[in-house]
Amino acid sequence: MKDTSIRIKVLKDQLLENKREISLERANLYTDSFKQSEGKSSILRRALATAHILENVNIAIKPHELILGDRTIKPRSGIASPEMSPYWILDEIDTMYSRPQDKFYFTKEDKTIFKEKLYPFWDGKSLKDYVDSKMSEQVKQAINIGIVKINQTDKGQGHIIPTFEKIFSNGLAFLIDEIKDKLKTNVENDFLHAGLITLESLKKYMLRYAHLATTLALEESDYNRKQELIELHDICTKISHEKPQSLHEALQLFWFVNLALQYESNASSISTGRFDQFMLPFYRQSISDGIEEEYCRELLRCLWLKMNDVVLLRSEDSAKYFAGFPTGYTIILGGVDKAGRDATNELSYIILETYGDIRLPQPNIGVRIHEKSPMEFLMKVAETIRLGTGIPQVFNDEVIIPGYLNRGVSLEDARDYAVVGCVELSLPGKTYGLHDIALFNLLKVMEVTLDKHKENITSFDMLINEIKNTIKEYVKYMVDGSNITDAAHGLIAPTPLLSCFIDDCVAKGSDVSTGGAIYNFSGVQGIGISNLSDSLYVIKKAVFEDKDISLSELHHILHNNYHNNEIARQRFINKYDKYGNDIDEVDYIGSDILSYYCREVEKYTNIRGGIFQPGSYTVSAHIPLGEAVGATADGRLSKEQLADGGLSPMVGRDKNGPTSVLKSVSKLDNYLTTNGSLLNVKFSPSVLDGVEGLRKFVNYLQGFMRLKIQHIQFNIVSAKTLKDAQKNPLKYKDLVIRVAGYSAIFVELNKAIQDDIINRTEHGM
């Protein structure tokens, strides 16, 4: 195919060349619609607002594009959602371009529009207003002291995988007709009316691009580009009602649906699912029809670039927890099929190879491995990881599928799992999981427990029991806060278009936010288990066994942040064993506490009739959550970061090599963390040199799989390179590295996160 490399280079350069701006276009259109829909139900108002956006938002077709559609005309713009919360935007309107992380430029004109039009309208009417009015004093106290962090109180929910197979198999017209038929016997159902409004506006949105392609084709002097524009017109026209047949048609329909879902809720992690499975028939059909494989690859590269155009605007506080724009276009490859057979196919390999051609943070590719995974595929995975972008991450069928069975999921559905956002496990097209609704700071639990009971605790077992009692108390507050936010989304921010792509919503006549999905989970993360293990082991030895110090004396030292006690701090760091080194006595402390946390969480049900399920991953929250915790007995100073990842050892404490890290993590009950867990491992680039290096790395992956650990991801980049990127950011503007359950452009991260990544132990093998 002529000029494919030129096409991708031009599109990639355009993506990264300009500063990120704030776009108020969606906010203005959304607000204009709401002003006209007073008196209607919330779900109808949301649908009418989405339709107004899709029918009026500015659209463009750039030179060289083969996949059409952008959220904004200017690349990588941040979209404001004042209907969720206008308050933080007003507070930060003058600091968004100077804040430490995820900066955006806010024009003077848009600042005036926000202050004079948008803020006055949404003041008192937003999702945040409802959530704040319902939070109890106990929940607020749990948040304020730093044990509980409730998410999604001021933004769209997302964290879901739509079912694309239904529209691929039947076409958009089928979905529209299905709702029309349902309305014949449910004429009063506002959800069905809302779904119909949004689906019909999606059709109009596609036809707007068809018309624009024709207009541009008439003006185009280059013959090859004219033919591309004519073909794009035909594709957009066809998929506005019919099912796709070719790969190009399927990819374009896929992207239009994704954009429409973004316009509806402006939410993170509306994820992709098992892309190599549902796109395979269209790839094979295109090859059968004589389309060159290289052209199919070029289409995929164009889609990957589109995914990187979507960056999410978050508050300064939220950006600390989700630094580097983790949009969550997560693709999962490989794994078993619904019958338990290996599902790896030719598209699995092509996706990895085309990602290697663009090397940007999105798509956030993950692979599923199992006992039957082909060696050829594992080698291809290793080759892609060797590129150093932290992609793909690896998930383990051998523990995740049984874990889902423990949650009441059918075997067929469990085998079809995929991933949303970072590492959150989900069931495509069947789950509304609120996967990132809350964080639970386990290390802060220990601090609160010691503050309250230091004078009364006389044994290590007594300390453990008091920590468990504190966990039990605060898990309830976390559940209460999560359910309040859950209810708020159902009342204030339903998503009827998204619900049309989730099984059973149309059949039930119910939005996903009010229980329409088949599976209704709420996911909450327990964070800090490695620091907690290390700290408790020091206390066990130094206080209760060796009796070198009393608990009250230790508490005094910690309360004063090791002031004039640096010798004691170094002793705590260096004398006592640490989690991550395959030492049972340390590792089992963490296993016991994490299992207790998981058992407490799973006792609760949410307002949609589903269960709460625990996970253990941090995104980039290990830094701000660390700011909430004073000095700890593992030698960590007040406000210093927690261990990264979720299950990873504390920075610099894993001394016995990467296999020992796996063995420590395997002692946790990884069947319980069904919302997802995260393990970061950093290798020296030389480890993967040559075919022999790749084979050793594959052996390591197989060891991970057989040890029944859920997830692992890698940074294969030297500390020397990262330090140079810190000093010379212009030389490394597209250097992509792994942060947590996602990758990001290194120079777009603040220094604290950069330093954390640099300081992670760089293993050999």
TrEMBL record:
- Give the source species: Alkalibaculum sporogenes
Q: Which SUPFAM superfamilies match?
A: PFL-like glycyl radical enzymes
Q: Which Gene3D superfamilies match?
A: 3.20.70.20
Q: Which residues form the PFL domain?
A: 6-637
Keyword Lyase among UniProt keywords: yes
Q: Which residues form the Glycine radical domain?
A: 645-765
Q: What is the lineage of its organism?
A: Bacteria, Bacillati, Bacillota, Clostridia, Eubacteriales
The source's domain of life comes to Bacteria
UniProt GO cellular component terms: cytosol
Name of the protein this chain belongs to? Formate C-acetyltransferase
Molecular functions (GO terms): formate C-acetyltransferase activity; lyase activity
Give the Enzyme Commission number.
2.3.1.54
Q: What class of enzyme is it?
A: transferase
What Pfam families does this protein's entry cite? Gly_radical (PF01228), PFL-like (PF02901)
NCBIfam families on file: PFL2-3 (TIGR01774), PRK09983.1 (NF007437)
Keyword set for this entry? Acyltransferase, Lyase, Organic radical, Transferase
**Residue numbers of Glycine radical PTMs:** 741
Residues forming coiled coils? none
